[in-house]
Amino acid sequence: MKQSTRVVEQRLDELVAAGTVESFVRHDYPDEKRPSRMFEARWRPEKDVTVRARMTLTGLDSGPINTWEIIAEASEPWDWAWPSPATLFWPKSSSSSWDIVGARGLFRYRAANLVDSTEAAREAVRTSLEAQADIHVLTTDDELKDPERPLMPLVRYLPAGFVGRLVEHRVAPWALTAVNRELKPLGLRLPPAGALIVPQRPRPAQIRPADLVIAEARFSLGRPQALIDAVLRHALLPRHTGADLHRHVALLREQFTLATDQEVAEELEEDLDAAEAQLVAALQAQEELRTELKETVALLDAAQQEAHTYRTRQTEALRAVDDARVALAEAQAAHEQLLTTVATSDLGQALRDAEARRDAAESEAEAAEDLLDEQAREIAWLRSRLAAAGQPSDEQPPQDCCPASWEELVERAEAELDRIVLGDVPATVRPLRGHTSEATWRQRTWEALRALDAYARAKSEHGAELLPHVTAYLSWKDAPVPLPRSRYSATESQLVLNTPKLREERVLPVPREVHPSGRVLMAEHIRIGSGKPPAPRLHLYDNTAGNGRIYVGYIGEHLRNSRTN
User: Fold this and answer.
1) Do the beta carbons of residue 50 and residue 42 sit within 8 Å?
2) Helix ranges restricted to H, 342-435
3) pLDDT at position 283 over 70
4) From edge to edge, which strands make up the β-sheet containing 166-171?
5) Is the confidence at residue 389, as pLDDT, over 70?
6) How many CB atoms lie within 10 A of CB 211?
């Protein structure tokens, strides 16, 4: 390595004398196994641009050079027209062996490296794909058929900065098939008499395969302008250089010893300015955080007060539901009494009176259900306020827009509720269309679907221990989309479950990945109407413990009524 060191020093002395290089210095790092020497140099390719470079030689003093490594950085974006750092460190003679690519020494930078066998094809493609800083190009030309004709390398046609950065592999016509066999898994192909710029792996998203392939690049016809233009465009794209190169560049910036006093002072001043700016920004952020915290505490106090008010209203709503149930029970008792007195009274008048009382009780129950719906929406809004604690206190609870039709409900569910899988809703809701309560049923169906979707999401986020089933979610104080517990039933009655015909009506389709038979029992259901026929229901299958989704197999009139009429 001593001879290599003298060659580099002699080359740098010549460039300093010529004014090309401003200064250089050598550092020795003795090591018994792999001693190394490092040269640092600085030069100006343009008046206001400074290049800092470092070349490290590794090898034994008693033997030839083993490896070299060059790292360079300019004060401005690199211009490929500038001299290559490699040509400033390497000996001036183009016949020297300094332009060997990597430690294995299989390829050279200033030559068209011949690929004339299957093994050479495999090695060329593998080396090209492993490259970080270097650009590898595969070329082919009929001139390879003439062994006496020297190969003109591509780098001779490119700006000076490509020396030491571009590696050309000139593929013989008889080795083209072997090269394309290696390229096939990458979706690339080297065309006959064409060229291919080998992309990094993985290929950057902004690089298209069409940008890498040059259909016509015959060196025998003169200057391959299409290939030259493609390489110049490719060289301007960002490259993934890997952790090692980033580390070497960082060491160059931190440990470069040829920096002038002015540069050191400027860098120190920039560091101080940056630190001061960071400190000012941190203090400002801290003050803003304190202000936001005070506002948040005030909003939280107001939200808690509102929560108390809404809890009181919810209690009143539940009490109204209970009163309605009592009224309904009284109406049913009156109906029973009517049956016992029908023989001694006016039957027609008694029936009309009983129906009137029943209708009144049903109306009261519906009104109570509507009030419960309103409370559920207000509770959801309140919980979102408590979570965010950043909305104005005089806002009204947002009204979720009810779908205008069952078809719109299906479309919105597919777009907005990705944890819900619906069955053939347009077919099963056909008996509900045109009913005076259709809009109310559709609204409650939409709210039920939103609550089920919110339950599936919350279970995925907080775990099955907190939310093992829908019942736990309905009792959860932090439920983002509440649903009245009185509407939900975890299963059917024993009569339904033990009666084959009634049970079979509730065995509904699901994907076969959910159940091999493609059907499951959906005894779990939600009331979307009152008990008065058609008494519509929503039947579901909770598969959140499996794939995280809920399958709604039926929305329509009460199955006991719909299948027996």
Assistant:
1) yes
2) 347-388, 406-416, 425-428
3) yes
4) 112-115, 166-171, 135-140, 195-198, 213-214
5) no
6) 14
How many angstroms separate the first and last alpha carbons of the chain?
100
- For residue 191, the SS3 value is coil
Count of beta carbons in the 10 Å neighbourhood of residue 205:
6
Region 388-403: what's the mean pLDDT? Answer: 59
Specify the long-range contacts of residues 2-5, CB closer than 8 Å, at least 24 apart: 2/61, 3/64, 4/57, 4/59, 4/64, 4/65, 5/37, 5/57
E strands in 204-343 = 213-214
Q: Which two tokens stand for residue 441?
A: 């049923």
**How far lies 536's CA from each of 165, 203, 431, 498, 541, in Å?**
74, 56, 10, 22, 17
Cβ atoms of residues 419 and 457 within 8 Å = yes
Cβ-based neighbour number of residue 277 at 10 Å: 10
Tens digit of each residue's pLDDT (9 = 90 or more) over 510-550: 999 999 999 999 999 999 988 788 999 999 999 999 999 99
Report how far residue 66's alpha carbon sits from residue 31's, in angstroms, rounded to the nearest whole number.
14
Beta strands in 102-223 (DSSP E): 107-108, 112-115, 135-140, 166-171, 195-198, 213-214
Q: pLDDT: is 418 or 269 the higher one?
A: 418
pLDDT at 359 (0 to 100): 64
Measured over all CA atoms, what is the biggest interatomic distance in the chain, rounded to whole angstroms?
133
**The pair of three-digit structure tokens given for residue 86, joined into one six-digit string:** 């490699």
Considering only residues 250 and 180, tell me which one the structure prediction assigns the higher pLDDT. 180
Torsion, Cα of 446, 447, 450, 454 (10° steps): -170
**What size, in residues, is the chain?**
565
pTM equals 0.47
Q: If 0-12 CB within 10 Å is exposed, 13-18 middle and 19+ buried, where does residue 487 land?
A: buried
For the segment 91-123, what is each residue's pLDDT rounded down to a tens digit?
876 556 677 776 455 788 888 888 989 998 899
- Least confident segment among 134-148, 445-459, 487-501: 134-148
Question: β-pairing, 49-59 with 36-46?
Answer: antiparallel
308 DSSP assignment? H
Token duo for residue 153? 């390398």
**Residue 520, number of CB atoms within 10 A of its CB:** 17
Radius of gyration for the chain, computed over Cα atoms and rounded to the nearest angstrom: 40
Question: 3-state DSSP: the chain helix, strand, coil percent, rounded to 5?
Answer: 50, 15, 35
- Work out the number of other CB atoms within 10 angstroms of the CB of residue 4: 19
Q: Residue 340 pLDDT more than 90?
A: no
Minimal CA–CA distance to 39: which of 6, 76, 78, 83? 6
CA distance 83 to 352: 105
- Map tokens 């939103």 to a residue: 450
Place of tokens 């009309």: 352
